[in-house]
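Usage

Read records sequentially. Each one opens with the input sequence:
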Amino acid sequence: MPTATSATVDIAPPRRYALNHVVLHWTIAFLVMFQLIFGHDMAFAFARVRDTGILGTSLGAALMHGTLGSVILLLMVYRLYMRISQPIPPPAPDVPRAVQVAGRANHWVFYALLIAMPLAGLAAWFGRSDWLGDVHSIASKLLLLSIAAHLAGAIYHRFVRGDDIVRRMAPGSADATEGRSVGPTGLERQ
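and closes with the structure output:
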């Protein structure tokens, strides 16, 4: 009687991020930019509620900021789940180890900040806690630094190294230039 055997199949790591990672990345990036640009209105709303107990004309800003922050929190928890449960492209093998470590560390800082920040903001709002409001505000400054480091890394890869690593998270279907050597101008190297 034949027996079932377990065959091991080696699956190559993906060369680019799956569509769900890409969609979440850009959706969260858009929401975070919106929050950072218009979030200062929330600070005024928070101070008014803390001092007077009345929202007044700040209700719209407070609802929008709190709702979008909650959406970011939920999307980040889902993204963290996907990050842990789904394969992602490995770092390019020719990238210096220190650059790989810095990039991975910055990504985990994003996860930590974009989960902790909405939690601190919600707790500050509902608990009327100045301390947690300060934590939320400081986290927003740290987030700006992480975004700057992330953008610097993208610029480094694209224009200094001339590699195509950034395209792994670019919206769109499979890369037309995947596997090709692309120069700093975006033109294929000969």
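Summary fields computed downstream for this record:
- The chain has a mean pLDDT of 84.
- The helical segments are 19-38, 40-52, 59-85, 97-127, 130-161.
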